[in-house]
Amino acid sequence: MLMLLKIQNDFDPVLSPESSPFVLKSTKQVSYQDILKVLDGSKVCSSVQNFTDVYLRLPGIPSNGQLTEGECIRVRICEGRFAVLIREPIREGNFIIQPKVDFDISASTVAGLLKLGYQAVAYIEASAVIYQDGKILIEVDHLQGVTNPYIQIKGTNKEIVSSAASSLSLDGSYTTKSYLQIILESLPVDDNVTAGIHNQQAARLQELVEFIQSQVC
């Protein structure tokens, strides 16, 4: 089966490390009023995004135990659209430096990957409340199956990000774990794993695969 995937994006591998956002991530609870205090009130805007990330893995790839993002193609389903998210984060102390490439794809492309043998092995369902003022972006993420929301402070200026996080009293509460790692660690320790898939996620993964296939005309 021959597949042609045409990608159009403004990614520049030379400039990407310089323009990549610095991210501080924490589970500390922060109020809406406190978030607004660190943003420029005249420029702040907010939005809500509900999304599902499906991780596709080619069977036979050697694994060192727990599934990692580097072993998978990450497909985001959001507002009826599909996109591939490529992340190669660099961890520097408490910071996650996040070069990224995102591009839209069609449902038929995702279905084609499944036909080629890629297997849906994990998923994340989440709701994100996003606040931004042009200098920094503050994202409050509610992950399905995880009790406490996560807050992320993002921006291309490391000092501004650090200052905003300190103003929100986040110092000492940071994590550099990926959401995939957090979700997998939240599953029961005795949950059986069949063909690399946690049984607790298997039924929903099958539903997502069927949904993807149903979107193909």
From TrEMBL:
It comes from the Eukaryota. InterPro entries: CYTH-like_dom_sf, CYTH_domain. One of its GO terms (molecular function) is pyrophosphatase activity. Residues 19-185 form the CYTH domain. Coiled coil: none annotated. This is CYTH domain-containing protein.
